[in-house]
Amino acid sequence: MQDTLSNPIRHNRDWLQVIQSYVQLTKPRIILLLLFTTAGSLWMAANGQLDPKLAIITLLSGTMAAGSANTINCLYDRDIDQIMERTRSRPIPSGRVSPRDALIFATTMAIGSFMLLFTFANLLSACLAMLGIFFYVVVYTHWLKRHSTQNIVIGGAAGAIPPLVGWAAVTGEIGWPAWVFFALIFLWTPPHFWALAMMIRDDYASVNVPMLPVIEGNEKTTKQIMLYTLTLIPASLLLVYPLGVMGAIYSIFAVVLGGLFVKKSWQLMQVPDDLVMARSVFKYSIVYMLVLCVGMVIDSLPAMHSMMAYVQSVALGVLV
């Protein structure tokens, strides 16, 4: 572990830095991606006619639940975060936030998330949000991360729960489209995270975290990335057929985005030690999920339904 000379204790200089430190604990860039998946599920469940109040409450609650889970993750991993170059400047290992204060912060957000969803949505969505925290903290962070190369595969279920929350908030149940969205994120997580793990393999090796690139090497990792990426196109199109909750616009998004993802994964498989290519795959994986969710929203808009119905009527008229 780093001593205080190589990793000196720092303190927040003012209230702005205090706020920045607590925001950093929540890992806001990860939260943003989770909110996109929640929003996509909300719109899909509401057929594009979403109650703005419910949307804001669900997204706010999702932010708090994810922030709580990420904060506890930072708290639990503070020993290895102090060693890894990428993470040693985080608020807890750097001394800007104490472990006690981080735990209070995380607990407060978890309770707030549950109460908001329970009060303004329903009990099912509130319980699902808490399940996401439990799965990320206990199953992934505590049980899998330091003990199995399948950590991110099984642990990816935690990041796939927000669409279930969004669907349940609107409908009060978990429909098949929500489960398909869950499966899509579950399949997307390994190629997304393994590409990152390839880039920082030495960091993970230094703290004995058995990420796949550390244990099996880059070549086998790229093959696994390719395998999971190939499943994304058929999985994403299940929302079109047989479920029928998405239409032609979304189909175009899914096929084009999935095709580009497969292409990039194939390129990485040809040069498994090229970290620049690994970074490209990692960045594109984020673009893939964000834009796919945008495609869901666009396809769900009432105006889009009207336009597609008009196009179909014209096409039928021409055929007749």
From TrEMBL:
Membrane topology of this protein: Multi-pass membrane protein
Any GO CC annotation of this UniProt entry: plasma membrane
Domain of life: Bacteria
PROSITE patterns: UBIA (PS00943)
A single MF term (Gene Ontology): protoheme IX farnesyltransferase activity
Location relative to the cell: Cell membrane
Reaction it catalyzes: heme b + (2E,6E)-farnesyl diphosphate + H2O = Fe(II)-heme o + diphosphate
Cited function: Converts heme B (protoheme IX) to heme O by substitution of the vinyl group on carbon 2 of heme B porphyrin ring with a hydroxyethyl farnesyl side group.
Other facts noted in the record for this chain: Carbon 2 of the heme B porphyrin ring is defined according to the Fischer nomenclature.
Protein known as: Protoheme IX farnesyltransferase
